[in-house]
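Structure ticket #2291
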Amino acid sequence: MVVSSTRIFGYRHNPIRILARSPSAFAVCVCSILYLFWYLPTANVKHELKSAWSDTPRRLIVFGDSWSDNGRYPTDAPPKTLVPVKEEAQGPVWTEWLCLAIKCNHHDNFARSLPSAPTTDLKGAVIDGAVLNRTLGADHGEITALSDLKTQVRQWLRFEKKQYMTSRMRDKERRGTIFTVWFSLWDIWYYSQLDGDAASKAVTQSMDTLFAQLEIIADNWSPGAKIILPEAMDPTFLPGWSVKRTGPAGSDHRADDQRNAIELVNQWNRELDQRASDWRKGQIYIYNTNDWMLDQVREAQLVVGDMADHNGLGHSGTPWDSVHSACVGVAGSDYVSPAKKDKTPGRPRCSYPDKFLFWDDMHLGPAAHQMIGQGIAQDIAESHGDSWFAHEQAEEIKDLQPAAEAA
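Resolution: structure written out below.
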């Protein structure tokens, strides 16, 4: 089963017209409203309907790349030299904001990344390292052995077995667990350098691996797994794309890689949606991060042009001072971040990171992570609470019954 944010499938009917055509439906609606006005106050409801998360034990299990890695690992931690060092101003990653919003008790991170190093080639975790190296071939050399999705799932299974033996997890927490899986940034970064057929085949093989791993997760999780899958985001919006590809010092002056990347993003998201809709071993929530990114850029451009579109973008301004430049390394900055523990000099950066869509060449800024994490939590709570957390609602109603009977 799949649920999706920002995408609407089918025709949305006008509820007022439906009621007007059906007197019986109108009567049921009126009765329902009167019931709510009578029942809810006497039942001493503790939470707003579907807009707030209960205090039921909940856990977040995270797989992904540098956009999801918070640098804390429950098992198989990388060597200290390979652990990413984050500045305080960079803020939490989106999964931490999600965890805070859903009131999770445990945030188990299996995502992996490398420390930021401007002097080295850009590298990151992908869904399937074997597909990557086989596709790129010997001419590109062996890509970094960062844990891909298959490795991360194996690490999780070992950790899960250990935790089960120590009886850490209760059944209520198990039913309230959410998995997040977000890859695509580095996959598309690498494959966009190839010709269309080879790159397209690699994306399809990556999708094969993704859903094979989701099967493994579901087979080792009962009841059915609840999984958040953000879609691929167009990497050509990243400041790093201009630096490494289409800029003066880049390798893509004809923009061939750029066209490839856009086509691969479309293919990735199309295959993700199609496969998720056919998946029956749990529930998948797809977050349309690419549309979200487009909205941020378009809104900023509309505000600069003193315009607005038919959806309202541009009417209320933009939260960003820049949607093109990164906070770190911003030209003309008089602010330098503190030196690191290894005495590495600090880097020039903007004074207000929350006003920049991007933190550095390849990563979102702190406000963007917050918007994505909180947006996903709010959308699930408001739109999909009945299907995702019916057991919590049932328990809450049971707790409220004595109060209702006493009234």
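Closing remark: Residues 6-26, 32-52, 393-407 have pLDDT under 50 and may be disordered.
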